[in-house]
Amino acid sequence: MIDLKDTCRLALIQAEPVLFDKKACTAKALKYVEQAKEKNAELIVFPELFIPGYPIGMNFGFSMGKRTEEGRADWKRYYDASMVVGEPCWEQLRQAAADAGAYVSIGFSERDAVIGTLYNSNVIFAPDGTWKVHRKLKPTGTERVVWGDADRAFFPVTETPWGNVGSLICWESYMPLARVALYEKGITIYISPNTNDNPEWQATIRHIAIEGKCYFINSDMLVRRSSYPEDLKTGADLASLPDLVCRGGSCIVDPYGHYVTEPVWDREEMIVADLDMQLPAACRMEHDAAGHYSRPDVLELIVHEN
Q1: pLDDT tier for residue 93 given thresholds of 50, 70 and 90
Q2: Could you read off the pLDDT of 176-211 as tens digits, one per residue?
Q3: Domain chopping of the chain, boundaries
Q4: In what helix (H) or strand (E) does residue 218 lie, and over which residues does it extend?
Q5: What per-residue confidence (pLDDT) applies to 261?
Q6: CB of 194 within 8 A of CB of 217?
Q7: Would you call 136 a catalytic residue per the annotation?
Q8: Annotated catalytic residue: which of 25, 89, 170, 214?
Q9: Would you say 255 and 214 are in contact if contact means Cβ atoms under 8 Å apart?
Q10: What's the whole-model pTM score?
């Protein structure tokens, strides 16, 4: 591991997306980037599918072996609101990162520019205008009705002054070998865009921080039942949802599994923290899952990347 900059000022954004509205979500993200810039943030992190929002509770008219025309119409509306790499909203975000002199991580529904398949993706924009996109390896449960399996960009990492930064989206973190694939790349900051507001997830993220000897950035969002457009064709299906559909719980965990910032619930907030970036290396003295505490002669991970 190369010598690292001593501290990283991180701004973790727990916010409510404007569901099904790509331009409004982008505008909200740009506003937060500007606010984070005012606080001298060097790494700015947004939740899973912040653009155009995570449609929690929707089924898009799908049941086993059946679809409805109303569900197809809502799916097409979400498709139209998904972002193509390089389009105007993308360029606005890329430029905002450059203007802020910061790395910006944001989850988005990616529409492939050629084949049109949607992917649950996360991009990290660098201050120099470059970017890395990670597509979710395996959409969870009925997410598979909306998004496809990643076909490329399996485990990209971004080189930063604080070491390699990577991301796994939501329940990808329950894929042990995927975690190891990131550990083997020497990540010091593990970004997790997600929608897990259940208490068990808090145990998961503290374990991963200890296991990987890295900072775990738990980036969740706020979603209200009132967040959904009133004119959805399948809107009646949402009537049984609670007023607060996703409560958040965003927080930062250090490599010892301790909270740097406690989970934030039930409100929007920009969480700002200065991370001690000497800690990931220092605490590997006794445990390094991909290094001296591994047995490559006994256990081997083969990663097929393209």
Answers
A1: very high
A2: 999 999 999 999 999 999 999 999 999 999 999 999
A3: 7-282
A4: strand 215-219
A5: 98
A6: no
A7: yes
A8: 170
A9: yes
A10: 0.97
